[in-house]
Design brief:
By secondary structure, the chain is mainly alpha-helical. It has one domain. It contains nine helices and no strands.
Length: 273
């Protein structure tokens, strides 16, 4: 990391940690006053996060698309951006942050512990399609994480809907609809990610598909989310069953982005270097 980048990212992580602790505390003790102040903390954290990305871009000359650290830097930025979007759209949707912000903190912490060294991207792999591929990968990850957060909130409210603290959050039908909408959005952007990655692979390696471990697991994950959509549309899966499914399915994205690198050292993908 560049020195100034490190300062901004560690400040952002510290504020995300405080916000996560306050969100969890507010849900455990049903303290609405504490919960209301978390939005401001998340917004300030996001601004420091954004500044860190700009500083890194200035230092290495490319957007965060290579290595575990840059993948988490960009991916968590998208997750928090979508969380803030929902929060601004309707105050009651701020409750999704109970899952998305602690999850983002853990991901960003994992990335910082990997290899945040300033390493400019090799000219041979720079491509328009690389940026499209990584952008849609991060957007898909963000969308699936919002679906995950909505699923967590659904399960929490379903068990405690009679309590005053939870009555202020969106009703179960709206949460179910929102969860499915982000599932669809993530599924489509994930498909664009796979397709653009194939085009980039043809340019870089000479073929569209090589059954690289990341390619294979990305396809498996996409199929799992497609199955979730199929179960919703053809068999009427809704509510708690769908919430558990989108919560489980996020593990596939985590494995695709980060897990492969822990067990396989032959992947050709840049974010696993």
């Amino acid at each position: 990391m560049a020195p100034l980048e490190a300062i901004f990212i560690w400040i952002a992580m510290g504020l995300y940690a405080i916000a996560s602790a306050l969100i969890i505390y507010s849900f455990v003790f049903k303290n609405e006053k504490i919960f209301r102040i978390t939005f401001s903390l998340i917004l300030i954290s996001f601004l420091f996060h954004t500044a860190g990305i700009f500083i890194r871009y200035d230092a290495v000359g490319n957007l965060p698309v290579a290595g575990d650290y840059e993948t988490t830097l960009g991916g968590t930025w998208i997750i928090v951006l979508l969380t803030l979007y929902l929060s601004l759209k309707h105050k009651t949707l701020r409750a999704v942050s109970v899952a998305t912000i602690p999850f983002s903190l853990l991901l960003l912490g994992f990335g910082v512990m990997r290899d945040p060294a300033l390493t400019p991207m090799a000219a041979s792999v720079r491509s328009f399609w690389l940026y499209i591929h990584v952008l849609f990968a991060q957007v898909a990850f963000g969308a699936f994480t919002i679906a995950f957060g909505t699923g967590v909130l659904y399960l929490l409210k379903e068990k405690r809907s009679e309590q005053e603290f939870y009555r202020k959050f969106p009703d179960l039908n709206r949460l179910d609809d929102l969860m499915f909408r982000f599932l669809i959005f993530g599924f489509i952007t994930d498909a664009v990610m796979i397709a653009s990655g194939s085009i980039w692979a043809k340019h870089l390696w000479g073929n569209y598909w090589s059954w690289d471990p990341v390619e294979t697991w990305s396809l498996v994950t996409w199929i799992i989310y497609g199955l979730a959509i199929h179960l919703r549309l053809t068999m009427g899966w809704k509510g708690a069953r769908m919430a558990w499914l989108v919560i489980f399915a996020l593990s596939g994205m985590i494995i695709s982005f980060f897990g492969i690198n822990l067990f396989v050292d032959t992947s050709l993908h840049m974010f696993n270097v």
